[in-house]
Each structure stands twice: as C-alpha cells, then as structure tokens.
Task: structure prediction
Amino acid sequence: MKKIKTVDAVGHTLSHDITQIIKDVKAGVLFKKGHIIQEGDIEKLLSVGKDHLYIYEMDENRMHENEAAEILYDACAGSSNAMAATAVHEGKIEVIARARGLLKVDTQRLYQINALGNLIIATRHNNTVIKKGDKIAGTRIIPLVIEKAKMSAVTTLSTGVPLLEIKAFHTFKVGVITTGNEIYHGRIQDTFTPVIAEKLADYDLQIDLHKVVPDDVEIIKQTIAEFREQGAELILCTGGMSVDPDDVTPTAIKAAGAEILTYGAPVLPGSMLLIGYFDDGTPVLGLPGCVMYASTTSFDLILPRILAQDTITMMEIAQLGHGGLCLKCQACTFPHCEFGKS
Result:
C-alpha cells in the first residue's frame, strides 16, 4: 500500500472502508473499500479526518480481489454441474447447490488453503444433507489486491480436484426386518417400522420388503438371505441391538455373512448401531431402539452416507465422537440452537 495526501487521491482506489460518525445522525460506511475517489469526495474525506489515505498499487505480482475470488470458486467447485456461483462482488463469491445430495468437503485441503492468509473459504459441514438452492460455501479475498503467488498456491493445493462434491442419493430396494418376541407374538404393537418408513420417505424411498421375526438367530439369518434373494439393496434390522443375551440380532447379521464394520458408535443417542456389508457391497444396519423415539440418532448421520454410496471408514466412525453428544441438528448451528436450553 502507498500513503498519499487526500487532496491528491482523485482516481485512486480505496483500500479499506471509510467510516463516518455523526452523533445521533449516522454511524456507518461513508465510502466502501474499492471505491474510486472522485473530485467531490475530497471534502467528505477531509471532514472525517482523512488527510491521508492508503491506496493499493497494482503491479505484475498482484491481482484484483474479484479475479482472485474466481480462483477460490474454482478450487471449491471446479467444473461441477452440481454447483453454481453467485456474481462476484467485493472479492466474494458464494457457492450454491444445484441439486440435492450429500455434501463432501475435503477438510484437510480446505484447512491448508485457509492457512495461506488474506483469503477465506467457509463451507457447510462435511457429510451434510443439502438441497437445491442451499448456500454450501462462501469465498472471500480480504484485501483489495492479493499476491499472485498466493493464488498460485491455492491452485496447486486444489490439484485439479474440487474441495467440494455433491453426491447424489441413489434409489434402493429396502428390506426391513423387525425383530423381537414381544412384537412377533403380538404382545405389543410395532411402532418402530413406521418411524423407519418416515425417515426413508425423506429420501423418496419406501419399505419394499418387511417381515416380523422372533429373537432367533437362525430365523433372522434366513430372513436376511431371503431378502437378498429378492433383490434387497439395503437391509435394516430393528431392535435387539443391546448386549443382553436375548438380543441376538448382531449375531444373526454376522452369521448371515456380513462383514461388520462396527458394532457401536460414539454417538448418543445411538451408540449400539451396527454397520455391515456383504461381499457384493449390500449394506446391512442393525438399528438401536432409540431410533424409534429420538428425533436424531447415529442412524440419521449414517443413512445419507449409505444412500449416497459413500465409503465409510472406521476412523470416520470414531470421529463421530466429537460432537456426538448433541444431535438436535444434522449440522451444527451453535449458537443458534436449543442446546443446553431444555
């Protein structure tokens, strides 16, 4: 930046906002950053005590904020048809979803880019369910001009692979196996299956296959096999997920040939969730009883990833423990939430 006398500033560009405060009348921006100073502006600037101004000098080593913002957007979205950019303004571009799906964020590269300084990319949380029209990221260049070398570093870090991806939800043929002697023998009403149907409906899915079975390893195992023969692409087993000896659902799922990714997740409610896969990639989930009454559980965190055919690792399951105690929202809205207020 270069310091010049205000009386000599006509034609130059302001490098920062100029504030004007008039008691009981006004307290706000007189001229915004990027304003090109006109002859009639001089007296106004002097009236707010600006005898000198700092202006940016453009050269071959710097670029304007708007040009640099385009680079940030490209790092976020690349040529993806699932995202769109707002018009660039004051070094800012927002990334808008053009389709519903699961938002994936490469957080490690995001952190590296933001650590460069004088620029920002702010995104929604990784693995958030988003809908068409949602704002999923915002970009901004902080100064009016920025070093070209810094923007070259952004391009290098983006490596031609966008930081953001929207994975579409797929259509699944869903089979639900309701376990429990109390339901099988008609002692109580099945209130679990309607909850599952409602959650699936949020993704335009329905229960295609359903059977109520007793707490019997062989029967549950056979039912899983039957569902697979009938083309089930996602199998959900409800109930019987505790460590009580009478709760045999996990044993039956394993006996049916599924490879268990995890039996247990560091999430409350929903710590007894089971996630498994068969050799052909068909997922099978054992759902803990809390899914029946809690609005958001581990199942609600995992289901969209299953439906987006997103690979889930054991490390990612472990990482759910950070924030796994408050599940009022699929993505954190603190402090604009009700956490701790009820």
Remarks:
- The chain has ten helices and 19 strands.
- Residues 89 and 342 are 41 Å apart (CA to CA).
- The chain has a mean pLDDT of 91.
- The longest strand covers residues 135-141.
